[in-house]
From TrEMBL:
Gene Ontology biological process: cytokinin biosynthetic process; tRNA modification
Sequence similarity: Belongs to the IPP transferase family.
Top-rank taxon, per record: Eukaryota
Protein's UniProt name: tRNA dimethylallyltransferase
Enzyme Commission (EC) number: 2.5.1.75
Transmembrane segments: none
Swiss-Prot/TrEMBL catalytic activity: adenosine(37) in tRNA + dimethylallyl diphosphate = N(6)-dimethylallyladenosine(37) in tRNA + diphosphate
PANTHER family for the chain: TRNA DIMETHYLALLYLTRANSFERASE
Signal peptide as annotated in the record: none
Gene this chain is encoded by: IPT9
Gene3D superfamilies per the UniProt record, alphabetical: 1.10.20.140, P-loop containing nucleotide triphosphate hydrolases
Database matches in Pfam families: IPPT
Amino acid sequence: MSKAGGLRSWGIMRLAMGLGLRRRPTCSFLLQSSTSISSSSSPLAVGSNGKKKDKVIVIAGPTGAGKSRLALELAKKINGEIISADSVQVYRGLDVGSSKPSAADRREVPHHLLDLLLPSEEYSAGKFFEDARKATEEVITRGKVPLVAGGTGLYLRWYIYGKPDVPMATSELSSEVCSELIKLQEEGKWDEAVELVVAAGDPKARFLPTNNWYRLRRSLEVIRASGSPPSAFALPYDSFKGQPEFEERKRSNDLVYDFLCLFLTSPRIDLYRSIDLRCEEMLMETDGLLSEASWLLDNGLLPNMNSATRAIGYRQAMEFLLNCRNRGGRSTAECFFSFLYEFQKSSRNFAKRQLTWFRHELIYHWLDASRPLESVVDFAFSAYREKEEGKVVVVPKNLEMRVVNPRQENHELKCYRAKNRIFRDEADCQHVLDWILRSQRRAAA
């Protein structure tokens, strides 16, 4: 994994403006589609000016499915550039836990929307929409093909269909709202802050994730600017989802780009095993996820404090290391395995939520990640070429993602338990425990 480059010295700006960070040491279901690409034609996507729309490829999938590798190999074949749609890869220094593309991958194919922010800063779907659309136009201007790859569902939904027309707050209004909430945030009075926003006019604030201060502030900004809560503004996606199967002609006419959307996943048991192994691999080296989590703690961030520290893997690792620091840097194999279990479980649950989200996104063609990568890349390449000619894209049967025996799969999922392949006993994690003792004892001092 690539390691974050050196961070410049940053001034300390607390809470809404972000905490200053010291330099980090270098360590750096299913859509049952029919099948095969059809030779039947569909109308070419054209804009309101009558010109043919630019093609954009979107590659989505649950964590651990292999979408980044598919995007990389496809980009090399079609002269493309990759735009990340990952809510954690935007942060500098969070490399291992976000599976950020390596330096070698980035040399092979240009990547965008990586390493934009400090972990103390917030990022949103609205900001992603603006950044990703801008990057898309820049890629097209260079004569390249944009490939948007990631698993953050809301980011991709807004990118494809558009974002709601929620008013932006002026700098004066933002400062005013921040002043209203900052003392409550400093004192950790989340429930009291929520009730303040509810009283202002947004009852849905009660359903925000705990300590998501950015969204709470944004809700209050919208109310102050418009007199209405964010939920009062129509979502462009809603005008599409009522269309049977997202009827091709209507979709092509109404969207800004001519999209080829692919969703890569595996049978759930295979996916879960892959996720469990990936979690182990992130902890195998002492300059991996635990080192990145330690760096976050060293710079004054706490678990579940903001977008970066709520991210799966980082939150669990920070909680684990905080507990170690409270014990003078000491830990045990039992504590380590308990942390690993929670990390794996949270990652699998996240993948399940991603599958549920994208199951309702009918614009995607679902592909079986357990098939040879070369076959999937060849199909995606052919689908892109066929789409350029106005032909309907249909997934071949051998690449279809479908459950052969749903009852058997459900039984296997109920009985599923992680079987570690790297950390099987105390001896396998001793080097990690030794590193924790050395590094967290110093931090606790």
